[in-house]
Specification:
Number of strands: 2
Strand order of the largest sheet: 1-2
Shape: elongated
Oligomer: single chain
Number of helices: 5
Largest sheet: 2 strands, antiparallel
Distance between the termini: 61 Å
């Protein structure tokens, strides 16, 4: 799993090592070498890992801010009312 991550990093944000893998010299001219090969299984594993992390990030967020999210609609309505009162003072209404 880490090997594909390293390849993707070198491919998208080439550092010196990554640049050597992507570019080469032919006489005195830089040429594009063969790009990294992405294997379907690696892509599948990467996607699964990314979705897993997203799912648990959302789960952690909801568990952490559970009470806040329950009261969110009420808080939003109160905030909008207060904003309306403040804005009406400045808009001359």
């Amino acid at each position: 799993m880490y090997k594909i991550y390293g390849q993707l990093c070198d491919y998208t944000h080439p550092n010196f090592v990554g640049w050597q893998e992507v570019m080469g010299l032919k006489d005195k001219t830089e040429v594009l070498l063969e790009m990294p090969t992405f294997v379907g299984a690696n892509s599948d594993n990467s996607l699964k890992l990314m979705l897993y992390l997203m799912q648990y990030t959302l789960k952690t967020f909801v568990e952490t801010f559970n009470q806040y999210l329950r009261d969110y609609e009420t808080r939003l309505s109160t905030w909008q009312e207060n904003l309306g009162k403040v804005m009406s003072k400045y808009m001359g209404k």
